[in-house]
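Here we describe the complex-level prediction in full. Unlike the single-chain runs in Section 2.1, the four entities below were treated as one system.
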Amino acid sequence: MTHSIAILGASGYTGAELIRLITGHSSMKIKALGGNSKAGQTIAQVFPHLRHLDLPVLQQIEEIDFSSIDLCFCALPHKTSQEVIAALPAGLKVVDLSADFRLRDPAAYEKWYGNPHAAPELQKQAVYGLTEFYRAEIAGARLVAGTGCNAATGQYILRPLIAAGVIDLDQIILDLKCAVSGAGRSLKENLLHAELSEGYHGYAIGGTHRHLGEFDQEFSAIAGRPVHIQFTPHLVPANRGILATAYVSGDAAAIHDALAAQYSAEPFIKLLPMGEAPSTRHIRGSNFCHIGVVADRISGRTIVVAALDNLTKGSSGQALQNANLMLGLDETDGLMMAPLFP
Amino acid sequence: MTHSIAILGASGYTGAELIRLITGHSSMKIKALGGNSKAGQTIAQVFPHLRHLDLPVLQQIEEIDFSSIDLCFCALPHKTSQEVIAALPAGLKVVDLSADFRLRDPAAYEKWYGNPHAAPELQKQAVYGLTEFYRAEIAGARLVAGTGCNAATGQYILRPLIAAGVIDLDQIILDLKCAVSGAGRSLKENLLHAELSEGYHGYAIGGTHRHLGEFDQEFSAIAGRPVHIQFTPHLVPANRGILATAYVSGDAAAIHDALAAQYSAEPFIKLLPMGEAPSTRHIRGSNFCHIGVVADRISGRTIVVAALDNLTKGSSGQALQNANLMLGLDETDGLMMAPLFP
Amino acid sequence: MTHSIAILGASGYTGAELIRLITGHSSMKIKALGGNSKAGQTIAQVFPHLRHLDLPVLQQIEEIDFSSIDLCFCALPHKTSQEVIAALPAGLKVVDLSADFRLRDPAAYEKWYGNPHAAPELQKQAVYGLTEFYRAEIAGARLVAGTGCNAATGQYILRPLIAAGVIDLDQIILDLKCAVSGAGRSLKENLLHAELSEGYHGYAIGGTHRHLGEFDQEFSAIAGRPVHIQFTPHLVPANRGILATAYVSGDAAAIHDALAAQYSAEPFIKLLPMGEAPSTRHIRGSNFCHIGVVADRISGRTIVVAALDNLTKGSSGQALQNANLMLGLDETDGLMMAPLFP
Amino acid sequence: MTHSIAILGASGYTGAELIRLITGHSSMKIKALGGNSKAGQTIAQVFPHLRHLDLPVLQQIEEIDFSSIDLCFCALPHKTSQEVIAALPAGLKVVDLSADFRLRDPAAYEKWYGNPHAAPELQKQAVYGLTEFYRAEIAGARLVAGTGCNAATGQYILRPLIAAGVIDLDQIILDLKCAVSGAGRSLKENLLHAELSEGYHGYAIGGTHRHLGEFDQEFSAIAGRPVHIQFTPHLVPANRGILATAYVSGDAAAIHDALAAQYSAEPFIKLLPMGEAPSTRHIRGSNFCHIGVVADRISGRTIVVAALDNLTKGSSGQALQNANLMLGLDETDGLMMAPLFP
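The structure predicted for the assembly as a whole is:
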């Protein structure tokens, strides 16, 4: 049986990653590629690395015939996404990779994104797409909101610890080191090779990064009280990867146990033996997330480090995993490829 | 049906790449991993990026039970390889990734590698592993010699041109730009990040690179007369990729036609439209080779550029493609993954 | 004694490099920085790495008082440069880093740059700025045209060989590997870190690169007959550096001798011992150019490799060297810093 | 007047950096280069980027005539350094770049470095080389111990805050992102380009990094009570730079004031305006350290970020600055070069 897929916003990095992954899927077939700015172009023109694939020409989104589509990935920019999805056929299953449906509270959305939400009714239907924690809801959802890539990484570390009550909720610091593809294919001076290579820096320092909206929403819900963490992302000269270093107050063994209990049966989340730490080179191009726990020399302090690929487990891989659930397929279909090293 | 596989020399980059590829194969299963210096270690210790796989512990090669093995990949260093393969069961199918069986003439082997061959009888049996040109022989072979990664790239450009008689055989210049994984995992000062990043240089300049032995052997055989090309490799600060720029005397249209005639039905060799040139970013992590042809402003001169991934199409991907042929399987099994971009 | 300097186009990479170099000059002092798009900004805003310097605020070029300026560097884009320089005070010494005054023949200019020259009278006055070959003319010039960075590299190899008659003029191939800062600070997709890092490719293949205009002009003048070379640049994932590999027909010893005769007294051009080849890592951030000669295995063929930093010896360092000559100063003032390695 | 300099351990990265810096010094002249493993080699063989310099051949340390040397830099490995310095003429001024004399307490030395100190009498004389805080002692010292590069970066942030009493001493977290040259030129698998490029990771997590010995010693001395911070370094794919992100409890304005009061007159430490943060690209190759302060969204929490070049301000630049003081010279001589960007 074949499942017919459309990808909207196919000319960005997450769109290309979706195509790469679906190429290895056992039953999905791409039937439409939407990308308004590059409509009319072939995939070989937009992404020469995909030139060997027999794929449809990019077209205007409004020209796509969705009647035969089983599921639509939407990899459009924030704000555009909510308008486009609102106009899609009501029954069409949608996995959105933008930020538009991540925050359940319209006021929180407006606070972090600066504009009122244009599709608040849709927002109510949307299920938050962190697969390992919303599996049942995702399987029955019509619209799934992909998480922020940084937000996913931080939650893989912290959700089990908050739920298990093994860390101090008022002393959580998350220091991220992010590769540049997370910023997308946009033309900005600080994304140029000459600026970024051999240079690295923090950004959105002090609690202004939008993914904090997701952390606040999710962590407070788990804890049953407001939880606000400190979160500083840094841009490093690499193309793929997020390395999250979490500084928490809590016992290392209890923390390792809580993570082990949560993830032992998960196909993609791999907890390292106590005292070992992960590296982005070991998850690149894959859907795996490696997590390590190390006790600090100061009693009662623990460092937890997680690594995942922002384009795969952090966005397009997560999206495919959710789509598998929504279509009743094996959750890992198309996602078991090993990381690319070196 | 399952095909049982052994990999000798599993702790190097080509060994890791073989494991990555076989992970996506429909019928091969890895039954033994040989690596003498790391015998006793798990794959998670040797290659943490493969920790999610259920693989055998590395063992001494002499301790491996080959009786149930269908095919053995040998990814050992040059010279060691010929000794190890000579001691394997006589009927075992072997794909060797070293340089040991590439040169048919023992004198040529000794000239380029500096020592007499230790298994000259085996050398006679070995089939040269450039799949697209030795397909039938490979399918019936017991021992296939993987080509040099630079040698493969240059031959993809030049073999059809020499065979078609469309270029001047005495005016062939091949300028290669090679990523660092081609040098393997050896500890050398010039492979350190601090030395190589932000720096690039030519090496083995003037005709001393060993892959010239393969060029001489193959091109002379095709032409029916001695052919000696100029060949200069350069090391560039990237991990995967070979970009070969060939300067030839010949008509661009005739050259494009000869390449098109050769490769139009090939699953992995993609000829670009006349005037377009490839980039290593578009083949990384895949088994594809992109080739482009551009006419020079000087009449009768043409530039042909090819790009492939040295670890995949240049060695381990080629090896798996050959193994598929040797086992009577679909030649593309395990090899159709899209490149990783960005 | 102080020499007052203005820099127009101070917000690009060559402008920044000029400031860096002049910081170490014994008598030059920057009095004005012109940059229309960033007028009103401080240097700390435009180039945070120069924030420790006491420099004027950027201003509109037309607002600069040139009456007290001794020499003006013009680091503006092509075409803009000729218009701006035409409007400067007639007696002001100018070093132009753009392409606007490199080609003496207006027809050649129009052929390579696509538009008629807007200041043909100025073009007649301009001296070509390849210091080692136009030293006397530069010392007396009012307007010096900085060379293309690729053009400089190729000429350092080939001029002495053409002049000495030691190579075949119809068999010259120049294969360049160029770092990304040579493309400037412009916002183009292929200059993004995510596109360029781990990827490299040829461009302007087949004889369409504009620096060929300079090669044709200069080499033909030396030879007294038309000389057309083949020239292919490649973009590699590094920020600074040009590595030029020249394939010539000629005797290696004669070639080494010709280069030694030309450069033995030059402060910045260093000829390596026969058989050694240079690397970009050894000239980064400096005004040095390293040249190496290697005989090919094919008798009568020689490979000559040169390395320089495109932003220093290839443009801003050359410009300062020429400015020193024009002001009657020690030619090496501000330029003797050692390369930055690693 | 000329000051005669010897450099022991000239074949490592800090040795090369010392030579680069001294090249731009107004009165120092290198008279001897000691490096036992490469004795007999010229600088062009050991460091081709310094081939333009007229420097002595490397020699065995025991063969150097120290009678005419005014000051000796010792860039040898830990443990070797203390033995070599103990054997130098008693009156010779020495700047040591190793870890051997940083810790005043022999028990602390043995705890962090695993062996008893071989020259405890010398250790008593040694002055800790963090220039801005030990200026007077350094000026009168015979032996100055260069600080750890990570230790310097952290102290530039934290010393003024501890001294001013504006932060909670029990809640200090220092997350470092370090470039690879800090690991030296040693041949280790994880320093290979193919391993490090496109990959990054934490190391010595949990309080095991030796530079903690320096933090403990210095911060406790300032506070007059034991101070233990959390410190996690991460290796990122770049060659030069340390970016330190400090998470502290304290008022951002008070913190900015304390840093401003400390550094306003310092030539190399540049405090950014409140709310701005530094980048390693803006200090590369220079002796500058940029520091930025940002208030967190959580009241009473502040993030302070510092950037410096580990080979310059973090080691060889610091060493030269100290040598200038010891010789009664202008402290900034040879150190005012602008950073190399891009």
